[in-house]
Amino acid sequence: MRGKSIKLYIMGENYKNLKTAELSNWTGKAYIGNRKHVQLLQNIEELCSPGIYLLISELEESYQKKIYIGEADKVNERISEQFKKKDWWSDFVVFISKDANLTKSHVRYLERVLYEIAFKNKTTIEMTNGNTPPGSKLPVSECDDMDDFNDNIIFLLRNLGILDFTKTQFSDVNKRNQESDIFYLNVPGAKGEAIKEAKLIVIEGTYRLLSDSYIRKDHVSSFASHNYAKLRKQLEEDGYFEPSESESYFKLCKDIDFKSPSAAAAVVRNSSVNGRKEWKLKSGISLDEYENSL
Predict the structure, then answer these.
(1) Where are the beta strands (DSSP E) in the chain?
(2) pLDDT tens, 92-126?
(3) Where do the structural domains in the chain lie, given as residue ranges?
C-alpha cells in the first residue's frame, strides 16, 4: 500500500489555530477546530456548502470518545445550530469537497457509511446519534467514489489522532489463521473449576478478541473504578456476551476489535491486566515478545 501525504494548514492569528487538512490527489478538505471557532466558520465561504461533520468530546475515565455524526446543505450553519443545542462536545471536524461536487445525496450517503463504521467501534467510540441516518441511494459508480472519499476521511481522523478506528472490515478469509498465530489468555473461574481460555489475533495493529472466548463473570472489587469497567459493562449490555455451560463464565458471541491488548484482557478477566505480558502463543511467547521481534 502506498503512503499518503497530509497537508496541515494552521490558519492565521485571527482564526486562533483553526486548522485545515488535505490529502494529495483528493478533492476533500477537513476543517478541524473547537467550540471557540464556531463563529469563525460562518465567515468561510466554502463551508456554505454540503458537508459531513463530527462533534467530539473526550470521555472522563474512559478510553472512548463521544461523537455525533451529521450532515447538512450548509455545514457551517448546522455547526452553529449544534453549538446552541448541544453543550457536551468540545471539538469538531467538518469535511467538504474543494471542487464543490458533493451534493445533498452524497453527504447523506457518507453520513450513513461513517455512522455504521463508527458504531462498530464500540471499544473506542461512543455514538450519540439517536437514530441510524437514512443514507441515500446513489448509482454504483458514485457509491464507489463516496466509499473512496470515506476511506480518506477515516485515514485523516486516524492519522491525525482525532478518532481511533479499529479495523472492523476484515474479510473472514483466514480470519482464524493457524494455531500458531492465536494468542491465549487463561480465564479463572470458581474454585476447583477448570481454567478456560480466551483467544486473540493481531491484524495490522488491531487486537481482535475472537468469538467463543470465555469471559469471567466475577470481578475483582478494585476493578469497579477502572477505566475499562465501563467498557466491559457496555459490551455486556449491548449483547456481546452469552451464557456458557458454566455459571462462572460468559462466552463472547461475536468478534470484537480493540486498540489495546490490555483492554481486551481486562474485558475477559473483569480485572486490570497487562495484556502485552499475559496474552501468549501456545509456545509461551508473550504478545510483547512477539511484537518486539517483528
Answers:
(1) 6-10, 19-23, 28-34, 51-58, 65-72, 91-97, 125-127, 183-187, 196-203, 206-209, 214-216, 241-243, 249-252, 256-258
(2) 999 999 998 899 999 999 999 999 999 989 888 99
(3) 6-159, 179-292
